[in-house]
Structure formats: structure tokens, C-alpha cells
DNA sequence: AGTCCTCACCGG
DNA sequence: AACTCCGGTGAGGACT
């Protein structure tokens, strides 16, 4: 059933609980029970647990071996509801929400603690702010009401419910960790960077490359210092504006090859080297900290460990346990398919209704079979390409897929004009950055945002409109990327549920924007792959209603993550 | 000694 | 050809 109960840890220990009625109000007396986990465990009939913060309470339940099917995260919902009302930036804690209800001074949100890699505790639960249970219940009932005031109440309810499901997934991902072979990782580092010397300094291979760079310049150059490299090129008579790889690649100088190779290894050493291994991998698992909804578009972020930026070469260390497999599933062309579903463009829906190569299908319709041109045009429409081939091809897009292009154009226009912009489910874009509240410059128009580049006249004509255009590109992308994140949350929720209902040992162990990894016994792998595909279809129907658009996944069953692509 | 900023790279 | 959208990460250095 859909029965909801609210629960909170009691101050002196134990739990406070109460069933809720259809309006989200207490349907009985609040009861106190001595054991939080037991109170939840003993009520499997509860359809959804309503609580202040999943990150605070759910790890404690998991510690006690208690899993819940569904929850409602009040502080996450507060953030989404405030955003929908255009009140981005107001404190989202339950304490703040309660104060607002009673027109009392609103306390600021507590700061998030800094990263502590060695710690096992959650990074996102600063210090629990105590909120009396009855105050929490008032906030929930008010949120229940506020959903009905949104543009699409059904979608908004789906948004808060699915992001709450994401919170459950995140807590479980944090606990499970990604299988990680530290021995393989170390061997990889030795192979790529060279062995480390006892006295410190660069590892062998990197030291060799640094020497090659210095020899090519005829003087000692530290390749990891952009300023030093630019100066060295200047002394060699070559002007470079930066030491970015794409710029260096076009430079004709004997140092370039070694320099690029060094920078590649330097990046691996600093971001995913021995120190990283020490900090983030324990007991054969990499434990990042996932934060659902950490970006304004609804994409997740991780705090620490760089879990969403694991270099391809390092993925060789991600290896399933003996007898187990990694089922790696990647949503195919997620964003164009989502654009088809939200814009209802007939041509694009038609194309997205097939599970084959979407860009090929687009190219057959509008680009005489030129797949590359089609891909650039589709992505250009989504990203707001302003120059180059994308612009030329955009005209063809506009002819063949007018409603799709109109949809993102309208989002861009709304952004430029400072209107609210929302994803399909109702996640709302924050106002333009720039009016910095800390300095009380509320009256500043949005176009006074970021500082102009050095040397650029601060009030040059055209400066404002340039920033407005940047804002338009942002909101144009926001509706697509954000609606895709909406869909992906529903995928995660459906997948989590079906893996559990099937009674499998399979575990979600990784999530990255459009990709999931499930770790499972080899004999479950086929069923897991099917569950992922089914979750994608179900999420499409739930999020967007009946639509011909399909949401296929490329699924690989592997022992090593690096073999998935 | 701590904080903030820039750079350049990783991923989607 | 150029670096469009969304982020995290560390190092180094400038600054307080």
C-alpha cells in the first residue's frame, strides 16, 4: 500500500513515529519506540518513510541491516520546492522551513564539512540540526500542500519522490563501493609512470620525460608549470597563449611530444595516483560519496575521489570479484532522445522511436547520410553552438525537426530574459549568477555578472548581451540535461526496486550521468541486463507519459570495467 | 599558515 | 577548427 509514516531519531535515543493521512498530517498519536532500526524493520507494510534527511538516517538503518523501499526526504524536497518557486538560495533545512512557516527569523543552513578522505562518516551531514518532531510534521504537511501549487503537481511529486529514491541509491552506493583491485592499480602506475624513487621526486618514466623536455629547450624546464613552459617556448621564438594540449599539438618543437606525454602522466599521478589509492580504496572497494542533485541540472556529483572522472586507463583496476561480473550499461544518445520526448517533435520522436544509431537515423533524414554532420548538428542544438559547422547544420535541423529546435530556443530565450526555466519534472534553474548577495548588490542587473576578462573594457558595448547569450546557452542545455537527469533518477529507482524484488545478489555499485554498473554473480548477469533495459523503458513511460521515444542501453557483461567499451 | 585563484586535465 | 553545455581534482602561487 501507499501508507506513509514519518520517522525521526529521538533526542534521547530511540525513534519517534507516526502514520500520516492523505493530506500529509499525523493520523494518530506520535509514539516513541526504543530502537530506530527495529521500529522501521518491524513495519514492512509502510509504503514510504518520510524523514528529514536520508543522508542522516538511512546509513544508520543500513548499518542495522534494514533496507527501505521508498522514502521522502524533506530537506531535499524543500530545496526543489523553493527552487520551483523561484526562491533559489534560501536555506533549505527543516528548521529554516519551519521558521518560514511561522514568519520567524530563518536560520542559515549549516556549512558542509570539508572533505576527510579517511573518515567513514558522511560528508554531507554536517552537524544534525535538531528539529522537534512536530515541527518536522508541520513542514511535511506544508510541502504536501505546496506541491499542488506547482505548474504540474503530478510531475513535481514525481520529482521529489524520484530524487528521494536517488538518496536511497546514493546511500547504498556509498556503502557498497566499486570493486577496486589496489594491486592492479599499483602495477598500472608502475607501468605507466615508472617506479618511484626512495628519495621522492617524479617516478622514473616521468623524470625521463621531464629531462627530455629540458634537453629540447636547452635549459631546465619544469613541465608541470604552465608559466615556465610558456616562457621556454617564448625564448625559443614560439608564442603560445596556453599550454593546453590542443594548442601544443599544433606547435612544431622537439619538446612538444615529451611535454604532452609528461602532462598526461602528471595528471594521473596527482588525481589518481598512489595518494588517491591510499585515501579512497579500502578492503577492495572504492568508496566515493555520491550527492544526488548536486548540480543545478540535477546531475549528481561526488565529493572526494573524483568518482565521475575516472580516466579510462585507470578502469583496468575495476575488476569483479571471482565468479562475479560487472554489468556496465550506458544509455544510448540519452539527451537527443530526451529532447524528442519533451519537445514532442514528430520527426525526432520518430527517429528516437528506434533503438538503433540515432545519429545515423537523423543523418538519413536531414544530412544525406552524413552521420558526423548530423551528430554535430544535434549536439549543437542542445549546447547552443555559436560558430563553425554546427551553425550551418543547425539550419537543416530546424527544417526537419522544428519543434525540437523551438523547444530549446524557447528555453534559451527564457534564460536571456530572466524567466524561470524548468526541466520536464519541474526542477528549476537558479537565477543568473552575479548579483552577489554577500555584498548586498541585489539591484545589479544579471548582465553585470562575471568579471570581464583582463584587458577587456568593463562596460564595453555588447558586453551585457554577451553574458545574456551565455545565460541562454546555459538554460538551453539545462532543459535537456536536466530532463535527462529526471529520467535517469527514475531508471535508478526502477532498477533498484527490480533487483531487490527479484531477490538477486546483484548490487548497484556505480553511477555516472548516463551509465550504471551492477556487480553480480555471473549467473545473474543476463537477468540484470534485462532489468536495466526494462528500467529504462519504464522510466521513459513514467517520466514522459506515452511517447514513441525509446531509451535503449548498450549493455556489456565484463569482468573488468576497461573491457566495457 | 591558511585562503583564494588560475591552470589544465579527467569524465559525461 | 576550436574548445560551445555540466561538473571535480590537485598543484602551484599569490595573497592575507
Describe this structure in words.
This protein has helices at residues 36-41, 54-63, 74-84, 94-101, 133-147, 153-176, 182-193, 204-217, 226-235, 245-248, 256-272, 274-280, 334-343, 346-352, 358-366, 371-383, 389-400, 402-416, 463-501, 525-544, and strands at 4-9, 15-19, 31-33, 48-51, 71-73, 178-179, 281-282, 285-286, 290-291, 301-302, 324-331, 507-511, 515-521, 553-558. β12 (507-511) and β13 (515-521) form a beta hairpin. With 565 residues, the protein is α+β, with helices and mostly antiparallel strands. Residues 114-125 and 434-464 have low confidence and may be disordered. The chain folds into four domains: 4-149; 184-277, Taq DNA Polymerase, Chain T, domain 4; 286-332 and 487-564, Alpha-Beta Plaits (2-Layer Sandwich), CATH 3.30.70; 335-481, no CATH class. It has 20 helices and 14 strands. α3 packs across α6 (153-176) and α11 packs parallel to α12 (274-280). The structure holds a DNA duplex (12 and 16 nucleotides). This is DNA-directed DNA polymerase. It catalyses: DNA(n) + a 2'-deoxyribonucleoside 5'-triphosphate = DNA(n+1) + diphosphate. Its EC number is 2.7.7.7.
Distance between the termini: 42 Å
Give me the number of helical elements: 20
Gross morphology: globular
Q: How much helix, percentage-wise, in residues?
A: 40-55%
Please tell me the total number of domains. Answer: 4
Instruction: Characterize the largest beta sheet: strand count, sense, and whether it forms a barrel.
Output: 5 strands, mixed
Record field, number of beta strands: 14
Give start-end ranges of low-pLDDT stretches.
114-125, 434-464
Could you tell me the strand content as a percent range? Answer: 5-15%
**Averaging pLDDT over every residue, what do you get?**
88
Strand order of the largest sheet: 3-2-1-4-5
- Please tell me how large the radius of gyration is: 26 Å
Structural class comes to alpha+beta
